[in-house]
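Q: Okay, next protein. This is ADP-ribosyl cyclase/cyclic ADP-ribose hydrolase from Castanea mollissima. I've checked the sequence twice, so it should be correct. Can you predict the 3D structure?
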Amino acid sequence: MAFLAIENASSSSSSSIPPSATPGCKYDVFLSFRGTDTRNNFTDHLYYRLKQVGISTFRDDERLEQGTEINSGLPRAIDESKIAVVVLSKQYASSSWCLIELAKIVECMTNKKLTVLPVFHYVDPSDVRYQRGSFAEAFAKHENQFEDKIDDVKAWRAALTEVANLSGWHLKDK
């Protein structure tokens, strides 16, 4: 369904995705996702389809190893994007890097008018919004691990809630 919308947007003269020539914007779309959950399926398909129809898309380096520092280019890529597609999957909140990235996306949404489009990838939007289930488990771990940075954890919670309150796509089992 999302792929049809992408195809229609690319062939329409009044596309909802503005041309890449927008000043200060290097990318049309920034993809935020938990690699272990969606990289080799949904996110790969979305990424290649966006590129196929000529939409400049940024996604992180798939060789980013666990425990390594997040690429310093990620915050800049978010700043230089018009749209952020956030693929919220079951283990998204288990990654502190995803949550740091999400906080930057919400900051840009607020300050720079970045458009944010959430995709609820086989998770209930209300579980994301209220941090239940796997999201509650992830935050319990973060609160223990980052007890000296609890304000960061609170900011991650707020960012997750804010994105979950946006209208988006809910992919679910039939």
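A: Here is a summary of the prediction. Strands lie at 27-33, 57-58, 81-88, 115-121, 169-171. The chain has one domain: 25-61+74-171.
Q: Noted. On to the next one.
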